[in-house]
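Structure tokens please, single chain.
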Amino acid sequence: MSQFTLLKKHLEDDARRSKLLEIEARLKPHPFPPQIVIENTSYCNLKCIHCSHREMIRPQQHMDRALYNKIVEEIGREMPMCEIWPTFYGEAFIMGDELWDRLDYADKVGCKNLVLNSNGTLLDRDDNIEKVLRSPLKRFILSLDGFTKETFEKIRAKAKWDVVYPAVEELCRRRMERGQTYPTITAQFSVMKENAHEAAAYRAHWQSFGAEVKVRPMLEWTATGTVRTETIDHNTDFRIACPWGNNTMAIHQDGSVVSCAVDYEGMFKAGNVGEITVKRAWEILDEKLRKPHREHRWQDIPNICKGCGDWQVAGADYEEQKVEGTRPFWYDETKQPSGSEMP
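Here you go.
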């Protein structure tokens, strides 16, 4: 998508509506979640202007280690290639060495598709660059969202361009020097009016360092907070079943299984994996959320879904695959984006 397309209202374009309908047509039931977000920590050290974490009121804590072990052990037994995000709502590097120990344990018990995201602010500390490169990660995604210092620091409030950019560049250099396959490095860019003019320069810069670049529209985090984008229409009769809700399980640090990866406050809960299995929680989600979505029973979907327009940004664009095993589960089947990738 061009920067201009990304700033348009998603539903104004008939071609975009058709693409969303194509995405929906490929959705299907899954006996076990193909993608799981495990919130190892809900702490974050930034206050980004486009993220609702800055107004989150639930506790900021690390997930209990025993609970984490229980989750990854089940995933390793049931579906080793399940795409696991070891955190999403918080900044993983805040956990220090415990993060790397948890990643190694997941790998040890059979989890072979680990994807970590970060804001990059702590990458230059505690030998973290080497720890990333030595880890069992398949993908390492850095959300940067700005190319110039001014734009980056306006969007990524509290982050310092002079710290983050050199660290990410050094990570990319070391990976290229070693000819290392995994993890691949992705520089992510959420387009908004503050940064759309920098998208092309951002892409060229990070591709020159051997990184994959993912440019996607901004979302609203279920529209339950104050974050809004003019590109999402909340007054439309057109709707599709949510791809993220259908394909992803999100687990908060206390074990709560919530509606989706952007239900940052946990306004819908299907159960707690400290008390039931991941598979059982997935079955409950199917009855209470996924089936009503797929069957267009809009009156029966959770209240948080009724006011959410983030399904409109489904369908991230990907570059041609260079490294095997570094695309979401649906990619090899369709060769086309289906919107199940994390926002």
